[in-house]
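Below is how a single chain appears once it has passed through the pipeline. First comes the sequence as given, then the structure the pipeline wrote out for it. We keep one example in the README because the format questions we get most often are answered faster by looking than by reading.
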Amino acid sequence: MPSVRVKQNESIDKALRRFKKECEKSGIVREARRASRFLKPSEKRRKKALKAEKRRRSSEGRG
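Resulting structure:
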């Protein structure tokens, strides 16, 4: 877990900016984004089937 000590006469904004940079370096931001997009296998199958159905319907109109 990254930590940042606020230096004397340093603004909170500057310390927050340093903290965000440390979080990015350690990969916390990347991991959080990856975890937020997690889909259960059943949801993946359903999404894939809906996408295929949409693709099939759009190609019917062209032929």
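Residues 48 and 54 are 10 Å apart (CA to CA).

See the next section for the split statistics.
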